[in-house]
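Our collaborator T.R. sent over the components below with a one-line note: 'Predict the complex.' Nothing else. No constraints on interfaces, no templates requested, no preferences about which chain binds where. So this is a plain run: every listed entity goes in together, and whatever single assembly comes back becomes the starting point for the next discussion.
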Amino acid sequence: MHELGISRNIVAIVGEAAKGRRVRRVTLEIGTLSGIMPDAILFCFDAVAQGTSLAGATLEIREIKGRARCLTCQAEFEIASFLTACECGSRRLAHIAGEELNVKSMELDEVA
Amino acid sequence: MCDICGCDDDAVPTAMNLQTGKPISLDSHSHQMQHRRALATGHGHLHEHVHSDGTRHVHAHHGPHHHAAPSGLVDIETRILAKNDALAADNRAWLAEQQVLAINLMGAPGAGKTALLERTIRDIGAQMSLFVLEGDQATLNDGERIRAAGAPVIQVNTGTGCHLDADMLARSMKELHPTRRSIMVIENVGNLVCPALFDLGERRRVVVLSATEGDDKPLKYPHMFRAADLVLLNKIDLLPYVEFDAVRAIANARSLNPDVSVMRVSARTGEGLPDWYDWLQLELRNA
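Returned assembly:
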């Protein structure tokens, strides 16, 4: 249920940047290892956006796949979860992508 | 009762200083009014579709789609949790300056977090100053238990909230006011999901896993166990009576977090607790 709070944060961040101008589209980056479900964000966003300058805006979510570098053999590869081990057998990994939780950009209704 | 998210008037987070019986304000906005205002704008049903590149959209049905070239595209590039993280950084700086060891104590409901704290306060409260911030959705029950055990405590009730956040800590900490070179334990809301995502400004994260749970809990809740500095495997006095395989549980935790410290303890019998107290003492020295 923290996706509701996350959605409120998104609306607050974008609303502040929009300074009252109407927002047509919001683009997020959400890593597949971030612990946030894009579906739940999509579900909450519209309700939270209503009554704000984001009302009716399209929410675009770019999912970022997990990537890690093995600290033992230096190989770099995609990971589906934190349980993925390197082919060399090591579990000592540096996670280099997949935990993103960012507001990337917004599109305003017209150029101010 | 709010008909949007189901919360009632009790949903606004509240806090209580159990030494003074004084309530502490945690929230100023009117949650339900926000929803009411939202409803008043009267949107229709949601519309979701998936583009060929995998991008998903959702929006209210408000006429034809616009896929024109972007006009008024503005880069924002901000972490969604930036506000929480900035407040957490402030908390961390203040705690470091005060040399207070702040511990975010997490675990499922019933894992024994409060029992462990009660025992800790009774066993070492005379040698180390312990302060406690209790997080629960409702009731002062755990706060009362901690107070009875002998430590100053603030009880935070999150209402429908599933975790504590950095702002709640900042406001309650001011009231609790831990003394220099003390230990402040923040007992988070019993939940293995949401608290993992919200930095409070703590120095260490401790997860209590108990023998009455499944030994695959670390695999089911990877974010929580990956974020842990220490796992306390509690209720080991019950191991002979349950299916729980302690070796497998520890291996599962280390498959996610290879360097995590694990201690086997029983808050009821006291077994293994000297290791936990040594750890606290060492961490306090480094705080």
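Summary for T.R.: Chain A is about 25% helix and 35% strand.
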